[in-house]
Write a structure and sequence with these properties.
This protein has about 120 residues and is of the alpha/beta class. It is about 40% helix and about 25% strand. The longest helix is centred in the first third of the chain and has 13 residues. It comes from Pedobacter africanus.
Amino acid sequence: MNMPKPCIYIVEDNSDIGFILELFLNEEGFEVKVLTTAQDFIMALKYGLPDLFLMDVKLPDGNGIDLCHQLKNDPRSERLPILMMSAHANEDVARSCEAEEFLQKPFDLNLLLHKIKQYLPAA
């Protein structure tokens, strides 16, 4: 019997970065949904929750920190791991919204995979 693939929501407005992350994580056996705006992300949450969030800080219509606060204050998602990423912010930003990890862009894809597997041990 096949186990369902762990699902990751990537919130990233840069289409090149989103494409690379989606391609890499699909090859590693994850189901991936790339969302490019805060609005798309909020809509996606109405249809279901992933196993993990990978979220950029800067978005065209909001920011990942506010979204992170929303997730951590919602009983449905408060225990789900959030990995924040940014080229401009630092770890203090991730701590401010209780994200599990912060990745400074650009980052190594193998480091990202290692971090994801820390929070999704069955993956």
